[in-house]
């Protein structure tokens, strides 16, 4: 059965101009300048405390900016109350009315605005979220994913220009969360309005968003398509927070024909100059673990043209689709390698002398002054350093 497409009218760009929020001496959002294109699925991604939720709450009208402005199209909504803005918010907690059935939960906003003929728009909206057959059930009779879709339908029926999603899938288990990622993207595509999704989950942002902005300390570290910021991170924070990276500090020894040559730990690495985020002579060589291959030293084969290092396997974790290795280099750094299990002959074992290598086009270069641990999970970093993770009350 074909679904009814819900059209919400003209949608305009969302502009944040010098948006700042301070709590006492702490700056949560720091002079944010950002344009979110109309009709896009936009993700604000970052760790707890980076300012992403505060930004969303200012757009929703739930927090007043210390400085700056919020515009939707040419309309300045900075001083408008939440109900006066063409914006609706979906929270992690769903916030459905337990005593009302699904139909009445979705109809609530229309009835509150004095609209009497709610049957057709509510039925269309429930059809959009694939819950038409459950209209007379109560929220307690639905799964978490179904309740989240009701919350989305209740927000969309008011025809906002912008739908704000505040960690909307955080309460769901992993399998259901992945299903809902697909559902939310489908719904956004069908209604064609702007979705602004706040999350700390990298996979969630990468799966759904057209554009991802990675936030850190109240500022945007990098913004672009999921593929662009993953494949070509411009800061150590982005390289570590969005996936995992091997980072090797080095010095530039040459630049020619669009290639930058780096010397690090008595080895030479080549990086396309366009993928180097600094003009300085101190550069951190980066490569993602899945871009690296590992071979036993006596079966390495011809590695000409590749970036190459030698080491010893200190850990091997077989996960079915791949094996994840740690390879300790001569200077003591452990490199991560994610190797797809294509052949039993390719598997190396704990204690093996190995060669790791990768195509130079998969390298990226960062500013040599970078904090190599920026963006890393604090508990994982503590375990790697041998410290006890901090207890959080």
Per-chain topology:
Layout: E1 14-23, E2 26-36, E3 41-45, H1 52-60, E4 67-72, E5 75-76, E6 87-91, H2 102-112, H3 119-128, H4 144-156, E7 162-166, H5 174-191, E8 194-199, H6 202-208, E9 211-216, E10 219-224, H7 226-231, H8 236-241, E11 246-256, E12 259-264, E13 267-272, E14 282-287, E15 293-296, E16 307-318, E17 322-329, E18 334-340, E19 353-358, E20 364-367, H9 378-384
Helix pairs in contact: 2-4, 3-4
Describe the structure.
With 393 residues, the protein is an alpha+beta fold. The protein has two domains: 14-230, P-loop containing nucleotide triphosphate hydrolases (Rossmann fold), CATH 3.40.50.300; 245-384, Nucleic acid-binding proteins (OB fold (Dihydrolipoamide Acetyltransferase, E2P), Beta Barrel). It is 22% helix and 34% strand. It is built from nine helices and 20 strands. It has helices at 52-60, 102-112, 119-128, 144-156, 174-191, 202-208, 226-231, 236-241, 378-384, and strands at 14-23, 26-36, 41-45, 67-72, 75-76, 87-91, 162-166, 194-199, 211-216, 219-224, 246-256, 259-264, 267-272, 282-287, 293-296, 307-318, 322-329, 334-340, 353-358, 364-367. The strands form four sheets. A six-stranded mixed β-sheet has the order 6-7-8-3-9-10, with helices on both faces. Strands 13-12-11-14-20 form a five-stranded antiparallel β-sheet, with no helix packed on it. α2 packs parallel to α4 and α3 crosses α4 (144-156). The longest helix is centred in the middle third of the chain and has 18 residues, at 174-191. The protein is elongated.
């Amino acid at each position: 059965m074909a679904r009814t497409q819900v059209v919400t009218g003209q949608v305009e760009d969302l502009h944040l101009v010098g948006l700042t929020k301070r709590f006492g001496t702490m700056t949560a959002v720091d002079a944010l300048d950002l344009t979110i294109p109309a009709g896009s699925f936009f993700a604000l991604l970052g760790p707890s405390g980076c300012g992403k939720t505060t930004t969303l709450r200012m757009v929703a009208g739930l927090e007043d900016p210390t400085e700056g402005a919020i515009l939707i199209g040419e309309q300045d909504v900075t001083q408008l109350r939440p109900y006066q803005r063409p914006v609706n918010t979906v929270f992690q907690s769903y916030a459905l009315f337990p005593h009302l059935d699904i139909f009445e939960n979705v109809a609530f906003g229309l009835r509150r605005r004095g609209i009497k003929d709610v049957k057709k728009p509510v039925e269309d909206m429930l059809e959009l979220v694939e819950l038409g057959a459950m209209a007379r059930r109560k929220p307690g009779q639905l799964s978490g994913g179904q309740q989240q879709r009701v919350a989305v339908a209740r927000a969309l029926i008011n025809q906002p220009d912008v739908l704000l999603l505040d960690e909307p899938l955080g309460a769901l288990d992993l399998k259901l969360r992945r299903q809902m990622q697909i559902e939310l993207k489908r719904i956004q595509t069908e209604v064609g309005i702007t979705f602004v999704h706040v999350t700390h989950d990298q996979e969630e942002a990468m799966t759904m968003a057209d554009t991802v902005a990675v936030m850190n300390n109240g500022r945007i570290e990098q913004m672009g398509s999921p593929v662009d910021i993953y494949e070509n991170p411009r800061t150590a924070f982005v390289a570590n927070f969005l996936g995992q990276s091997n980072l090797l500090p080095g010095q530039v020894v040459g630049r020619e024909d669009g290639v930058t040559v780096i010397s690090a730990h008595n080895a030479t690495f080549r990086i396309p100059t366009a993928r180097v985020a600094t003009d300085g002579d101190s550069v951190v060589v980066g490569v993602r673990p899945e871009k690296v291959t590992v071979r036993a030293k006596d079966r390495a084969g011809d590695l000409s043209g590749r970036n190459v290092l030698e080491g010893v396997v200190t850990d091997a974790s077989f996960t079915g689709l791949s094996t994840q290795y740690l390879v300790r280099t001569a200077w003591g750094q452990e490199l991560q390698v994610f190797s797809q299990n294509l052949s039993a002959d390719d598997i190396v074992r704990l204690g093996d002398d190995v060669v790791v290598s990768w195509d130079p086009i998969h390298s990226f270069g960062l500013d040599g002054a970078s904090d190599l641990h920026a963006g890393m999970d604090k508990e994982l970093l503590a375990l790697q350093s041998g410290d006890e993770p901090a207890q959080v009350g």
